[in-house]
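pinning this so it doesn't scroll away 📌
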Amino acid sequence: MNEVSIIGLDLAKNVFQAHGAEADGSVLIRRKLSRAQLLKFLSEQPPCIVAMEACASAHHWGRAIGCLGHEVRLIPPAYVKPFVKRQKNDTADAEAIAEAASRPTMRFVAVKSEEQQAAMMAYRTRDLLVRQRTQTINALRAHLAEQGFVAPVGPAHVGRLAAVINGDDGALPAAVRDLARLLLDQIAGLSEKVADLDAELRRRASTTVRRLTTIPGIGPITAAAITTFAPPMEIFEKGRDFAARVGLTPRQHSSGGKERLGRTSKMGQRDIRRLLIVGAVAVVRWAARKGAPEGSWLARMLDRKPKMLVAVALANRMARTAWALMRRGEDYRDPAMATA
């Protein structure tokens, strides 16, 4: 009797497409399912591989389907696209997902738990509020610049704007003053919410997060992002593999035995990459002002390379160091920049 070995599932909001195949690839099932029918249909199938693209709601369905006894495999959408034959539709997508998941060298995404998704939501909510606060500050700076008052960029200088707005010298028209106070209240409210989320993230900090913060350039937010968004470190054989996963290694254009390396690939998890680069820029700026330890890798790089290039290279080293600490369960033993 023919038995399904793998089911490719094309996810959507209400209508799902299933493609079931035997171990040799022969098609057994092509079926459209409603949201209410999906779990009932899968509960009637023998335990098999159920593959989906790692997209919205995939982790929710992955947990639910895993409880039915199936092996769940989530695939990055970019790895599925080459397997789509000619026209793109739900049926072709489901078939491509099943075919991609059956490849022995395919890379998969781990199914996240509810706790991990809650931590991701906390981080993303904080990121949204920070961006809204930045937008509001810039709007206030722009409006006051129209009135002849200029302040530097950044939340640290909002006090200068507040002093102008709340001043009694009559320098601002009453209508402008009232509207500017609305923006000031909005900035204060957003800052309070960001501070609350920062405290919440620190409260949830695990031993691993505290260990990562011992690395120069990695603070509590970056450490929380690494533990939240990064897959288990056991899947990486070496630190460079993790650095490549977050897009901090050069893009290759190699052929015929000749290596051609370009800029960073910028592939993988962009939140971790962005935070690592921001932290590295802070370390490079501090070293440029105060001076890096003599003979260190950072000092030698700053002597012969542009600062931004050094920052990206340092972010790569920070990623590899984070991998090492998480794999070995150790703290960063040398706070100064290590020599090569």
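📌 and the second one:
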Amino acid sequence: MDEHLHEHHEHLHQHTNTKDVLNRLSRAIGHLESVKRMVEDGRDCSDVLIQLAAVRAALGSTSRIILKDHLEHCIVHAVESNDQTAIEELEHAIDKLIQ
């Protein structure tokens, strides 16, 4: 489990899924590199779009893991300590994520 202090909040955060997140990000990077090569090689647009969908799916699943971890640890702590700023920051992050 990795731990760090949040920049804006003085509570210790434990990343319970760091290895899984890093593995998923590596897969997404691999898919994106493949997309780049496909475009460079002039591959069919449909194939490129399918590969881009794989990138988006990989990032979406990674985002869900990070969000779940954040809710279970940081936001629980924020609610317990009446930290409205942390909740507002989560709302802002979710808005950015689902745009």
